[in-house]
Specification:
- The protein has a single domain (2-268), classed as Porin, CATH 2.40.160.
- Strand 6 and strand 7 (97-107) form a beta hairpin.
- It contains no helices and 16 strands.
- The radius of gyration is 21 Å and the shape is globular.
- Mean pLDDT is 76; it is low at 14-29, 66-76, 159-163 and 207-218.
- The strands form two sheets. It has a twelve-stranded antiparallel β-barrel. A two-stranded antiparallel sheet has the order 10-11.
- By secondary structure, it is mostly beta strands.
Amino acid sequence: MKHRRSIFHAVLYCLALIELLGPAAALAQHADLSAMDDVIDYVPKAKILGGKLAFQALLPVTNSSFTPSEVRFNPDGTGYVDTWVQRLTLEWDWSRANSWVAYALTAPTGRYAAGVANNIGSGYWSNSIASGTTVYLMKNNGITANLTTDWEIQRQEQGAKGTTGTLGRSFTMEWGVTQVLPLNKRMTMLLEFGVAGYDKWLVLNNGAPLPTGLSAGGMPVYSVHATGFQTNFIVPAKNVGFSFKYEPEYLAHAHARGRTIVFGSSWTW
């Protein structure tokens, strides 16, 4: 069993342009999130379909704030949030690639109450089918292409005034192409850098009626797409890594475009 602790700080700057009144007007929003994850991995010796069997649990604690426009809104967003349990994972390793597929469950263990501003949990259960693939483009494994996906199905959430609703389904992709360079001859310190991005689509499924009287069930709510760069500093012997990622969104539907900045670190023991 392996225990990994990861710490990251993410900032999302969101700029919505309103071009209906002549010169573009702007509404700025700022979200700030810090989190520490205790990640527990367990890999038994058994193999299924030629792949290794694995289990994983994420036990996160977070601290967050949100700033809409010029008015500071900073609730007490500190505490234990929703728990991610990867109940079944299959992993395959080949000479020039490795891949995994998993079924995961997210439990609403974070604080949540309908209509309350300082929620840090989602208030609903969700199921995910996730996958990840890394392909080594060079014989020395110096250049890699990576892709992870997550198909999430949310269950019913308790809303304000006794109402309930199902958020629907979402599909998320994160990808990157990176180059690894040794910083010394002993290769005890590595620098990884390259391009990265993400794409997400969300479909509403709460059956709420539209003004036209038609049902909103199955409507596509929004999509967002971003491309940027990432860099990692890795110390293999110590199982320690530090990361930085900058991803500006270049296309969004029913969603304000923004920029995501992430600072992270991880330690495995």
